[in-house]
Amino acid sequence: RNIHNIIVAAGSGTRFGSGCPKQFQPLAGRPVLMHTIDRMRQALPGSSILLVLGEPHLKLWHMLCDKFGFCSPTIIAGGSTRWQSVKNAIDTIKLSPEEEGIITVHDGARPLIDSALVARIIDGLQLASGSIPATPVTDSLRILENDGSSHPIDRSIIRAVQTPQAFDARKLIKAYSLPYKDSFTDDASVMAAAGYTDIALVDGSLSNIKITMPADIDIAAIYMAHETS
Ligand code: C5P
């Protein structure tokens, strides 16, 4: 099956709180996003990558690619929500009539993917419309009620969901042709709204963090150092 990979990196990174969004911050000597792209290329050699970037960051990205001698994947203009950014990329994917393609979607802000994780999500697709990495949660959990009260819930039945996520290409394209909902936080939730609920959960990786706060850069660097040691 042909694999089309979408890497979304068009967020403004407001929670990161610096002028330069998190996906361009240096990590182990290179921008976060270059690690993410390189690891995706290593995990799925020969497959295509669509990189979604915000208009205001195009100049910065081209400058960084020059500086680091980095070959950029095809660039797609981002949207105002993650959903719109993914949709803009999906709209450029044209499947040939017989093609039983796969589309993966990955957050540019998760540079710590590895080939084993990517192989697990692709394998998971054999029996389902989608395949996503998930991890158990370690914090205790509570449900908030409207009246301000809360009650504990059993964390053993909860999973935290990461990217990359892989999907049957035709089904994902169909799901993205339906209207946006505020409840969409990832692509599996877009699939669920379209009725594609058979999603395989594969083991995520605790080191596959999404860079969100400045300290996450340091944490990612520590995880990277451990990989090579
Ligand atoms: O904001 P959050 O960390 O949840 O974003 C997840 C990923 O989606 C990031 O890689 C971010 O760059 C991307 N994104 C995007 N377009 C947006 C918002 C977020 O590509 N409008």
Description:
Catalyzes the formation of 4-diphosphocytidyl-2-C-methyl-D-erythritol from CTP and 2-C-methyl-D-erythritol 4-phosphate (MEP). This is 2-C-methyl-D-erythritol 4-phosphate cytidylyltransferase. The record marks 15, 22 as: Transition state stabilizer. GO terms for molecular function: nucleotidyltransferase activity. InterPro entries: IspD, IspD/TarI, IspD/TarI_cytidylyltransf_bact, Nucleotide-diphossugar_trans. This protein is α/β, with parallel strands linked by helices and 229 residues long. It has a single domain, classed as Spore Coat Polysaccharide Biosynthesis Protein SpsA, Chain A (Alpha-Beta Complex). Helix content is 31%, strand content 24%. The protein is built from 7 helices and 12 strands. The chain has helices at 32-43, 58-68, 82-90, 115-124, 169-175, 187-193, 214-228; strands at residues 3-9, 26-27, 30-31, 48-53, 74-77, 102-107, 130-136, 141-144, 150-153, 159-161, 165-168, 199-203. Strands 1, 4, 5, 6, 7, 10, 11 and 12 form an 8-stranded mixed β-sheet that branches. It has a two-stranded antiparallel ribbon with strand order 2-3. The radius of gyration is 18 Å and the shape is globular. The mean pLDDT is 96. The site of cytidine-5'-monophosphate (C5P) has 17 residues, from β1 and α3.
Provide tags for this entry.
two-stranded antiparallel ribbon, 229 residues, nucleotidyltransferase activity, eight-stranded mixed sheet, binds cytidine-5'-monophosphate, IspD/TarI_cytidylyltransf_bact, isoprene biosynthesis, Spore Coat Polysaccharide Biosynthesis Protein SpsA, Chain A, 2-C-methyl-D-erythritol 4-phosphate cytidylyltransferase, EC 2.7.7.60
